[in-house]
Every structure is written in C-alpha cells, then in structure tokens.
Amino acid sequence: MKGRYEFWNPEMLGYKFFAEAKRAWDVEIHNDGRITTVQAAMVLCAIHNLYAMDKVGISFGNGAVKLAHELNAFASHADMTCITDVERRVYTYTAWSMYFWFSVKCHLLCIQPLVKTPPASPLPDPVENHEWYSETWIQYPFHDTLYSLNHPAFFKAKCDLSIILNQLTFSIFNEAGRSEPLPPKELKDFLERLGTWHFFLTQSLAPENIIFPFELNLHLTYYAAILSLGDFTSPDNLVVGLDDETDDIKQSINHSFMCFETLMRLYYLHHGYETPDGHMTHNLMILVYKSLAQVNALAITPTAAHGDSLTSQEAKSTLILAETGLYDQGQNYFLPRALFEIVANEMSDQDKSLLDAYIPAQQENSETVESRQRYISSQYPVKFAVRDAALQDPRERHLGQIVNEFMALAAKKAHSISSRTGNEREDDDVQL
Questions:
Q1: 386: phi > 0 → left, psi -120 to 50 → alpha, else beta; which?
Q2: N or C: which end of the chain has fewer CB within 10 A?
Q3: In angstroms, rounded to a whole number, what is the distance separating the alpha carbons of residues 256 and 230?
C-alpha cells in the first residue's frame, strides 16, 4: 500500500488502527491497572518511536514502568502476592521484556534508561526450564517437519545483553543526556563483558548457525554496542591515559564494524530490507555514518587514510545499500523515511545519481513535506553535523531539530525565489 508510512493520513489503515488503539487506551487507563495495560503501553511507545515521535512515546514508556512497579512486576517471586504461579511467570516475562526494550532504546537515543535495575526475579536456565519460556515452531511450505526457533535461549541471551547495555548507557550519559568520557579501565571492562557474553552464546545462536532476522539483530545489537564505544576513543573525546589500550580498543571497534557490515549484507541477501523491522533503522544508520565518512575521506585522500584495502567504489556500495535500505524501511515507518531524506541531503551529486538508479524518483506533495515538520517529535541523535563544521557534540543535534532547520532553509529559499520572480516581473512591466 503506497504511502502507508503516513500515519497522519485518515485514509490509511495505519491511522485507523492507531486511532482505535489510542481510543482503547483512553478507556483502559481509567480502570484498575493490569499487566496487559503495561504491555499495551509498551506497544504504543514502540509505535510512536517508529513514527518519529519518541518524545510522545516516552510518556507511554514512563507510564508502563510506573504501573509495572505498582504491580510488583519487577519484584521477586516471594514479593508477588495474591497471584498464581502462571501470573508470576507472566509478570516476570513482561518485566524482563520491558527491561530489554528500554535498555536498548535508551541506548540508541543517548539518554539514561527508564528502568535502572533488572527485575529481581532472575530468568531460569533455558535448558533446564525450557517450558517456562514456551516455544515457537515454524513449518515451511511442502514440508511436514516442524522447526524450533529456540526461543528460550534467544530470550535469555538478549536479556543478558541488555544488562550490559543498561549499565553502559548509565555510565556514559548523565541525567541531562550529556556524554561523559569513560575511564580506560571501564572501557576495557565493558569490552571484556561484551566479549564474554558473545563467547558463551548457546550453539543455536553461534555466528555460524544464525539465519533468522531476530538472530541476526541480536548479533547486530552486540556489535553496535561495541561501535558505540568508538565515540569515546576518538581524538576529540579521548580519555587521557589510554595509550596502548586505545589501540586495542580501536582494533576491536574496527573488527566489529567489519563483522557488523558482513551481517547487514547477509541480512539483505537472506531477507531483504523491505519487510518491516523496527530494529533495522538504527542498524542502517550505523552503516550510513561509517560509509559516508569513508566516502568523504577517500575523496580527499584515496589511499593514505584507509590503505589499499578499501576503495571508493566499495565505500559507495555500502552507502547506497544503507540508503536504499532506509528507503525500503521508510515505506513502512516514518522514522526511516525522515532519515532517508536527511542522508540524501548529505550525499554528493554524483552519489545521488547512483542512488537514483536503485530507487524511484521522489515526488512529495506539499502536504507530506509539511507533515514531516509538524509531526516529527524525535530526539533520535543524528551523528553527522549536516555540513556544520562548528558542531562539537553530535548528540546535540537530533532528528526533530535538523528537520526544522531543513524546513526553515526551504522556506527561506522559496521566499528568495518568490522575491526574485516578483522583481523580474516588475522589470518587465517597466520595459513594457
């Protein structure tokens, strides 16, 4: 369905479903709190994030966290009174799902996590307590065999990773969302903890065995966490005293990006980027950051900065892949659609011509352009400076701010053209 990312359009199914969901929510919040209310708030928070309205969605997130604590969902099983064993399992599962979601999302938004500590009830061993998690089975067409997705091991692994991400985000960002350099020992400690998590993954989640999107996304989240440490080993943010340890950290980061790009290409080859995937937008933006920086650097120094191993054609290939991925995801969600436009503005005319060969020509009506400015309420950080060399901290520029700047620039340009046209008409009148 064309234009399905236009969540403000009453003719779209997305608008109708979202309107009904919010109507049901308005009725639900006046009733006694239930665990299903917590789950609904998490869904509404996620939808607002995909619509580039995470500032609005965060209110649903705060409400979900508050109600979950009121229901003792984060408490130990002993403190969960007046509920059955099945309900305790539901409460614990919901609490850990919430902890994972907000740990990852707040890390991407560069803000302190809404949930500070993991649930008091630990997750059981996925091997010894397989039935606690339940299981998902799939069956391929023309085959009678059922295949397990190994959900217990996956859920336990992603929750274990979220604990590291949560603590990393708290260590880096203060309450105002400003980044603070990590001490050398702490940087190395986080790298070792992430490496240990990866090393002890179960066989079903080992790199050689992953194939499904959720499995690839788990490994992409791991490598993205390592890449995020690169912001704090750059020359501008270098912590005094790192010395030789800096080289080890940078080598780990460079290796992680190679693995990250490989996984992104495997994801594309196996699944493509057209299918809606809420995790894929940030992964594609990581490719954009790295490849765009490489393209710009290679344009100045073709081999000196990167060696003979990377060519301009390879860097541009990655950039075009990431940008077309944002375009494909942008057919489903508004956030990648808005980011696609910003990235296109950063590309050179030559690279834009290459991009035009892979995606249809963009013809947006005035309503869509105006809606982009009206509805975007996002603090998603855009880590390139949009040709602003004076910018020191990329986190100070978020999606909503940049879109407003673009719109102001477009209005100024339109006014200039209008004024120039008016003056030309006056000159014609004088000549007549």
A1: left
A2: C
A3: 10
Q: Please answer whether residues 376 and 400 qualify as being in contact, where contact means their C-beta atoms are separated by less than 8 angstroms.
A: yes
48, with CB counted inside 10 A (0-12, 13-18, 19+), is buried
How much of the chain, in percent, has pLDDT values that exceed 90?
43
CA angle, 25 as apex, 23 and 31 as ends, to 5°?
Answer: 120
> What single-letter DSSP state applies at residue 147?
E
Give buried/exposed letters for 274-294 (b at 16+ CB in 10 A, else e).
eeebbbbbbbbbbbbbbbbeb
**Contact assessment for residue 378 and residue 334, using Cβ atoms and an 8 Å cutoff:** no
Mean of the per-residue pLDDT values of the chain: 82
- DSSP class of residue 381? B
Whole-number Å distance between alpha carbons of 26 and 8: 19
Q: Which two tokens stand for residue 219?
A: 């490994």
CA nearest neighbour of 375 among 26, 52, 29 = 52
Under a CB-based contact definition with an 8 Å cutoff, are residues 115 and 99 in contact? Answer: yes
Question: 67-71, 286-290, 329-333, 399-403: which has the minimum mean pLDDT?
Answer: 399-403
* DSSP-based three-state secondary structure for 392: coil
How distant is the alpha carbon of residue 185 from its chain centre?
Answer: 28
Pick from 51-55, 106-110, 257-261: least confident: 51-55
Q: Which two tokens stand for residue 365?
A: 């009506």
pTM of the full predicted structure?
0.86
- Whole-angstrom distance, CA of residue 122 vs CA of residue 78: 12
- In this structure, are residues 324 and 273 in contact, taking their beta carbons and an 8 Å threshold? yes
- The residues with which 330 forms a beta bridge, in sequence order, are none
**CA dihedral (170, 175, 180, 183) positive or negative:** negative
**Alpha carbon separation from 22 to 15, 297, 413 (Å, rounded):** 11, 47, 39
* Separation in Å, CA 103 to CA 110, 167, 364: 11, 9, 36
Determine if residue 373 is left, alpha or beta; phi over 0 gives left, psi from -120 to 50 gives alpha, anything else beta. alpha
Residue 293 neighbours by CB under 8 Å, 6+ apart:
384
Whether the CB-CB separation of 92 and 73 falls below 8 Å is answered with yes
Calculate helix-pair angle for 244-271, 213-228, nearest 10 degrees: 160
